[in-house]
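Lecture 7, part 2: worked example. A protein chain together with nicotinamide-adenine-dinucleotide.
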Amino acid sequence: MRILVTGGAGFIGSALVRHLIEKTNHEVLNFDKLTYAGTLSTVERVASSNRYRFVQGDICDADAVRCAIAEFKPEIVTHLAAESHVDRSIDGPRAFVETNVIGTFTMLSEARAYWLCLDDEAKASFRFHHISTDEVYGSLGDTGLFTEETPYDPRSPYSASKAGSDHLVSAWGHTFGLPVLITNCSNNYGPYHFPEKLIPLMIVKALTGAGLPVYGGGDQVRDWLFVDDHVHALQAVFEKGEPGRTYNVGGNSEKQNIEVVKTVCTILDRLRPRVDGQSYATQITYVADRPGHDKRYAIDASRIKNELGWEPAETFETGIEKTVAWYLDNQSWWEAIVAEHKADQRRGLSV
Ligand SMILES: NC(=O)c1ccc[n+]([C@@H]2O[C@H](COP(=O)([O-])OP(=O)(O)OC[C@H]3O[C@@H](n4cnc5c(N)ncnc54)[C@H](O)[C@@H]3O)[C@@H](O)[C@H]2O)c1
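Predicted complex, written out as structure tokens:
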């Protein structure tokens, strides 16, 4: 199949692109603006494949999206391009509304215009798969899980913009009959994760001898999923999912942020001990909490498991070991990014 991947130079999109080129026979068009979060180094190893193409473009630019779709003729659109960092959405929400809401609207409009001109068979098999987050459901107390029926209750500008985009996708399905799919996934981690998100930030700061800034008491709970498991879930959904349906994707791996940071430190202590023999955990520094910080997210992924047969292959323990080892083996990848963003004085980075 011909699969258009928006945001294919980012963390999850690039994992999807690498998987599709290396492990399947699908053709891929990677459509990405290359914002601060996107770099072609994430897809370098598949870039020479004759089943891979790249177009630099903005999902808010209807002409650019229309041209890419007309030229590539996708059978599946997997829409991952987004502004994705909650801290940045607090400091500057506009880009989140523009990319996540207007950009998704533009993708839907152009996909629909193209879809309307397809023959009946191609129309029926076409899919618009929107990749979203569990953060649209809000925050849980100490118990309970998000199901696909949990009412939306987004709290941050990021999750509100993703919730808005999810509603637009549903509307295009209900009102116009576009065969849409939505997945709401928990926190991902793994290789090529931009070092502003919790896990890569901690690895990089630990290795560079900096403080490890933990928000509040570090007691917020997230359900962690290894990125390749998310990619397998996406493939199951766009190949076998029922149009109009939403699927929650989670790792069944609830951890407090502080547990995650201490686990990273323990693995680093073993794989790359500090020269002074002290633990990396001595670098942990507690910083003022993020405003409106959601307490707990946890996913009930039984629908995707029961209907599509997907389950994560990695536990948190195996996935985090692989992730830390990857950052140790690929120091030049993240050093280049850190050097480029050295001057950033963003929320969550200072100690
Ligand atoms: N990272 C997670 O834990 C997680 C969890 C659930 C869902 N998601 C969702 O998955 C998707 C991918 O997340 P990620 O972590 O890979 O994000 P990311 O920030 O690593 O990558 C986003 C990519 O989108 C591109 N992009 C941004 N604005 C664009 C625009 N206007 N036009 C074209 N390209 C643009 C960027 O250049 C980048 O390559 C997002 O929609 C996000 O909301 C992420």
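The pocket of nicotinamide-adenine-dinucleotide is lined by residues 6-7, 9-13, 32-35, 37-38, 58-60, 80-84, 99, 103, 131-133, 162, 185, 187-188, 194 (CB under 6 Å). The chain has a mean pLDDT of 96. Keep this in mind for problem set question 3.
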